[in-house]
Amino acid sequence: MSRIDILAFGEPLAELAEVERGGARVFLPGVGGDASNAAVAAARQGASTAFFTALGDDAFGRDILAMWDHEGIDRSRVILRDGGDTGVYFITYGTSGHVFTYRRAGSAASLVTPAELPLDLIAGARVLHVSGISQAISPSCRDAVLAAIRQARASGVAVSYDTNLRLRLWPLDEARAAIHEAVALADIALPGLDDARLLTGETTPDAIVDFYLQLGSRIVALTLGREGALIATPTERCLNASRPVDAVDATGAGDAFDGAFLAEWTRHADPFRAGAYANAAAALSTLKHGAIPAIPTRAEVEAFMGA
């Protein structure tokens, strides 16, 4: 079996997104979850990708498995819990934009323990990708993420970590301690500006990337929304300005950035080229509604960059 480029570990969720049809409000089904979105983005850029989690043996879980199969993502080690539930979230829209409502407490994914980790799959990947959400959903999952990171480091596998702060899942002080512990063990830190300001207490992009570099990450890719992304290593940094697009929905743009960045980085190990590529992918992902339907392919990103 050839080596997997990227193994993502987290909680996929069934998605029900509000739309208006004929004057009525209806909810269309889909799939979400930050790590899963990133895995799809990586796969669409041509990276060999796998996912580990637990799902309920239910209709939502089977839909998620079918989506991964369609995207060419290896899900052979996913746990199906008989009698367990797959988490669900709803997207509604108000005057200030989209609103997320979750039904995920006690989900199959949140019950993952360190003993259930596929240690051989982790050791055989080139990159392990996890996030703060993966740690926030339960104490056992928090421990499992750290155990996965340590297995990756012991096996010479690069670790990618998106801070992805969700204060509805845990208080800031608890989140800050757990996220900083994980980032200190990560090779690639993928924070967003708003979250990073809360987590670090810093306000400027340069101070934030300095903070994460000092924690121990060797690459920091700080997303800045409409301002692009600041990519930094201990010796160099570069601001990739965003390209103007007529954005309609930014849902999942950060996940698209993550997956595209990692897929491109595994091709040539240049974080600055990867940052420019991921910036373009994230911009394209805002042109459609929904997270997964909006994720572009490599051909689309390359055409956009060459335009």
Integer average pLDDT: 94
Structural class: alpha/beta
The CATH topology is given as UDP-N-acetylmuramoyl-L-alanine:D-glutamate ligase
Widest beta sheet: strand line-up: 4-1-9-10-11-12-13-14
Radius of gyration: 18 Å
The CATH level-2 architecture is identified as 3-Layer(aba) Sandwich
Q: CATH superfamily, called what?
A: Ribokinase
Helix tally?
A: 11
> End-to-end span in angstroms?
38 Å
Q: What fraction strand?
A: 15-25%
Helix content: 25-40%
Major β-sheet annotation: 8 strands, mixed
What is the quaternary state of this protein?
single chain
CATH class: Alpha Beta
The figure for the number of domains is: 1
Overall shape: globular
Number of strands: 14
Low-confidence stretches: none
Structure, described:
By secondary structure, the protein is α/β, with parallel strands linked by helices. It has a single domain, classed as Ribokinase (UDP-N-acetylmuramoyl-L-alanine:D-glutamate ligase), CATH 3.40.1190.20. The protein has helices at residues 34-44, 59-71, 119-123, 132-136, 139-154, 172-183, 193-200, 205-215, 253-268, 271-284, 298-306; strands at residues 4-9, 13-21, 24-32, 49-52, 54-56, 79-81, 88-94, 97-103, 125-131, 158-162, 188-189, 219-223, 229-232, 237-240. Strands 4-1-9-10-11-12-13-14 form an 8-stranded mixed sheet, sandwiched between helices.
